Amino acid sequence: MQRRPFLQIAALSALAATLSMANAQTTPFKIGLILPMTGQQASTGRQIEAAVKLYIAQNGDTVAGRKIEVIVKDDVATPDVTKRLAQELVVNDKVNVLAGFGVTPAALAAAPIATQSKTPLVVMAAATSSITEASPYIVRTSFTLPQVSVAMGDWAPKNGVKSVVTLVADYGPGNDAEKFFSERFQLNGGKVVDKLRVPLRNPDFAPFLQKVRDLKPDALFVFVPSGAGAAVMKQFLERGMDKAGIRLIATGDVTDDDQLNDMGDGALGVVTSHHYSAAHPSAMNKKFVEAFQKANKNMRPNFMAMGGYDGMRVIYEALKATGGKGDGTALLEKMKGQIFESPRGQVLIDAQTRDIVQDVYLRKVEKKDGQLYNVEFDVIKAVKDPGKAK
Ligand code: VNL
């Protein structure tokens, strides 16, 4: 009778120890996914969320014994909100990774929180070169504007474009696109007649396009963020710019796969440079596009979805490599240096810069099976972000 309580206590504490170990292993692995789900950039949030869900559906929701839990928060692409949400996710929800970030100001607002809390922050969308320098905990799976703009600066002068006007959204990625396209274009003997910047919020392209018409360059080079391309295309055509002999060249953000098919035949022939097209002709991409469309009422994945999908790959593989036990710093180390085949082509997360190295394609809008696509016709292999050499 006397010894029993002791035995019971011993048994109970052994049981408690076992339970707490089991508990450690089954503690969910939390990903705080901050995206613009409403407002002007909502299509970016919708695309990335769909891609994240697809990745989990295809690869399972348990990794190295940890149940994956994704907490989606809508920041309406507003940096003050992003910052507060990142703080809450880290402090209250104790997320293991922060991810998403539809626009540059949002990624920059969250960067100090990643640094202070040693939480890896995976940028799946925002594309200003300098973002990865804002925190040593940032890893990027999208792209950079210098990376894709330089290719157009090489292509255009070889293809009959001797003079251009540039028109970019007036913030980080637009400034990067303007600078890196113009420098390369001029280096190749081209003339930049004027550089125009349009406000990010509720842009009215009409007065800018009127000015371009008057200046009559061979081509207009455009960068606007995902979601704004259709408006540019519409006004470009409505003002008869093409008929006035002005060609439209752009980064692939303008002929965004999310909108391209609704832009109409006026978009045919537009040449852009970018890292992802839904028409990329690899077996892996065909499977990706098919699965994505099947799971999302036929919505076509765009480059934002691609950044979200590969971002999940980078997180999953880092979690596996740490045996499910790594802290933020250990996870970050296993994100660095990953090399893999993505639906966009071969990619590397550069261990030094934590930025993505990838192929950049020249593409032309063409009709395939009655639908408009960015059809790739040339490739520059393994492009590092040229912005990092500054
Ligand atoms: C950014 C760059 C956003 C490219 C985009 O779409 C884009 C950014 C929302 O860095 O803010 O296509």
UniProtKB/TrEMBL annotation:
Protein name: ABC transporter substrate-binding protein
Keywords assigned by UniProt, alphabetized: Signal
Gene3D superfamilies per record: 3.40.50.2300
Family of the protein in this entry: Belongs to the leucine-binding protein family.
Organism: Variovorax guangxiensis
Leader peptide range in chain numbering: 1-24
Domain Leucine-binding protein: 28-368
Keyword Signal: yes
Ribosomal protein found in the keyword field: no
Coiled coil: none
InterPro entries for this protein: BCAA_transport, Leu-bd, Peripla_BP_I
